[in-house]
From TrEMBL:
GO molecular function: phosphatase activity
Record-linked InterPro entries: Folate-sensitive_fs_Fra10Ac1, Histidine_acid_phosphatase
Protein name: FRA10A associated CGG repeat 1
Biased composition (Basic residues): 225-235
Region of interest: Disordered: 1-28, 225-256
Compositionally skewed regions (Basic and acidic residues) per UniProt: 14-28, 236-245
Organism of derivation: Muntiacus muntjak
Length: 307
């Protein structure tokens, strides 16, 4: 204490202040030595409200961005619609779109599909026609699948086969009628298919395989052309040639036998006539003339029967 007769000197406070200042300098120097190059400076003062608000907005925007990226398109759309209704008011019914004019890929293919594509059809191609053409290229066009439900009206429907039907054998190893799965007694038919497509009449020659019952339906009004394999054609030719050869041999044998019979009949008739004439001239016998005439008549009837 100053002025109370103690041992304290007047310079004691100055010494304490000097020591504290030295300590502060040491800590600052130590901090500078231990500071890392990427370490941010420490703020001793309170941050301004505007700076804090900007930092909060950035953090919130970052979180919202991550949240939106995690959503799909539909969830993102519904969130935006709900936010709009929440802030600006309105009803969800106002945002509902009419689905009357919506078209799927299958609808587009049905509208632009063609049974056969020509060079003229590929002139002006838009995306809808390209989609239909791409589907057409995937079809298998060897055999057709038929709709014979209106065969009594002479109206038929044909379409090409898809990959699933080719693998299962439908239309080739099974009956080509869409309502029939018969595998035995199949026949191949060639049909001139006339149809109207996009206001234009066209014809196409198609092949299909049908069972006996479905073949009857196909040929209900008039018979179509049956397609036969080469082996079957060769067999039919051989059978026809053999039958004609057999017929010719039989006819030749019959003709020779008939000629022999005719010769025998004529010789017998001549011998009888000569005997009857000899007897009638020598003995002037009426019975010989009567026998002569009866023999002639009987031989004539036999001759006509054998002819």
């Amino acid at each position: 204490m100053h002025g109370h007769g103690g041992y304290d000197s007047d310079f004691s406070d100055d010494e304490h202040c000097g020591e504290s200042n030295k300590r502060k300098k040491r800590t600052v120097e130590d901090d500078l030595l231990l500071k890392k190059p990427f370490q941010k400076e420490k703020h001793g003062k309170v941050v301004h409200k505007q700076v804090a608000a900007e930092l909060l907005d950035r953090e919130e925007a970052r979180n919202r961005r991550f949240h939106l990226i995690a959503m799909d398109a539909y969830q993102r759309h519904t969130k935006f619609v709900n936010d709009y209704i929440l802030y600006y008011g309105g009803k969800k019914e106002d945002f509902r779109r009419l689905g009357e004019n919506d078209k799927t890929d299958m609808d587009v293919i049905r509208e632009n599909h063609r049974f056969l594509w020509n060079e003229e059809d590929e002139m002006d191609m838009n995306w809808e026609k390209r989609l239909a053409k791409k589907y057409y290229d995937k079809l298998f066009k060897e055999y057709c699948i038929a709709d014979l439900s209106r065969y009594k009206e002479n109206k038929f429907g044909f379409r090409w086969r898809i990959e699933k039907e080719v693998i299962s054998g439908k239309g080739q190893f099974c009956c080509g009628n869409k309502c029939c799965d018969e595998k035995e007694g199949l026949k191949s038919w060639e049909v001139n298919f006339g149809y109207t497509e996009h206001g234009e009449k066209r014809n196409a020659l198609v092949k299909l395989r049908l069972c006996q019952e479905c073949s009857f339906k196909l040929n209900f009004h008039h018979r179509r052309k049956e397609v036969k394999s080469k082996k079957r054609k060769d067999k039919a030719k051989k059978d026809s040639e053999e039958s004609t050869h057999k017929k010719s041999r039989l006819s030749s044998v019959k003709e020779t036998s008939k000629k022999k019979d005719k010769v025998c009949h004529m010789s017998q008739i001549k011998s009888l006539i000569s005997k009857c004439i000899y007897n009638s001239v020598l003995y002037n016998d009426v019975t010989a003339w009567f026998l002569y005439c009866w023999c002639l008549w009987w031989r004539f009837i036999q001759y006509l029967q054998n002819r």
